[in-house]
Design a protein that fits this description.
Layout lengths: L9 E6 L10 H9 L2 E4 L5 H4 L7 E4 L2 E2 L2 E2 L3 H13 L3 E6 L9 H11 L3 E4 L4 H8 L10 E8 L17 E7 L5 H10 L7 E6 L7 E6 L3 H7 L6 E5 L9 E2 L6 H8 L1
Parallel strand pairs: 1-6, 1-7, 2-3, 2-6, 8-9, 11-13
Antiparallel strand pairs: 4-5, 9-12, 10-11, 10-12
Helix pairs in contact: 3-4, 6-7
Length: 262
């Protein structure tokens, strides 16, 4: 076979799901087996990474708060360069590539460079973690709308979150541990009841998962008191009272108020 008959490179933006390898899509699993190189995030579960064959090159571009192994611009350049070299490149991202995964930025870079790119969706953390916790994000009696927001953002207090939480709504906050107290204060200042149930889901869908419930007014103290670690989701809304959870009732009256919402 001469070089002109070799298949051209292609970039695949693949969702790895929330952690449990059994939640990986079949298409994603097949792509991991056929890839030349896998460029993966730090949030991709070890069980998912174990599915990558030994001969496939791996590059970790793990990101942590205020510290990136590789800046996004350099990741974009890496993906384009390897694909233009004729490789089948899998960009493996925790959850879904298009929900707080910067998949849109990487797709833009691929399009600008003329690189063939396809997106393979994954189960986003909100859906996977809530399902494991027995927490319905929507419920005919409790919520007919769901909003996803990033809690780790600049100028949090200047953001307009009005209407995102409260009656008939569920608010899911990604990357909100470091700003949990500020988030609670902001929502309460915007008119959300301080007694609205909240759930914090730590390491959702994994064997080490933990689900903690309380009230919005207790959110910041809950995160500190229980030493909640990343990755974690914060869910605010009446549906949080339906979670199969370890209730953290450090604030007087929390138990009775949660029961009122059940």
């Amino acid at each position: 076979m001469d070089k002109h008959s070799l298949p051209s490179g292609k970039l695949w933006l693949v969702g790895a799901g929330p952690g449990d390898p059994d939640l990986l899509t079949l298409r994603a699993a097949h792509l991991l087996e056929s890839a030349d190189i896998v460029v993966h995030d730090g949030l991709v579960g070890d069980g998912v990474l174990a599915l990558i064959p030994p001969h496939v090159e791996r590059i970790s571009v793990a990101k942590q708060r205020s510290r990136h192994t590789m800046k996004q611009e350099l990741i974009n350049e890496l993906l384009v360069r390897e694909t233009l070299a004729g490789k089948q490149v899998v960009r493996l991202k925790g959850g879904d590539p298009f929900i707080f995964g910067r998949g849109g930025e990487e797709l833009d870079a691929a399009r600008e460079a003329g690189v063939a790119c396809e997106v393979v969706p994954g189960i986003t953390a909100a859906a996977g973690c809530a399902a494991q916790a027995g927490l319905p994000l929507t419920h005919r009696e409790d919520a007919s709308a769901v909003s996803f927001v990033a809690g780790q953002c600049k100028d949090l207090t200047d953001q307009d979150w009005s209407g995102l939480a409260g009656h008939g709504r569920t608010l899911v906050i990604y990357m909100g541990l470091a700003t949990a107290s500020a988030i609670a204060d902001k929502l309460i200042a915007d008119g959300v009841s301080p007694d609205l149930p909240v759930a914090v889901i730590e390491r959702g869908t994994t064997a080490d998962a933990r689900v903690l419930r309380s009230l919005l007014t207790d959110l910041g103290d809950l995160v500190l008191r229980e030493k909640v670690a990343s990755p974690s989701l914060i869910i605010v809304g009446k549906v949080a009272a339906r979670a199969d959870a370890l209730d953290c009732l450090g604030t007087p009256g929390v138990a009775e108020l949660i029961k009122d919402f059940s």
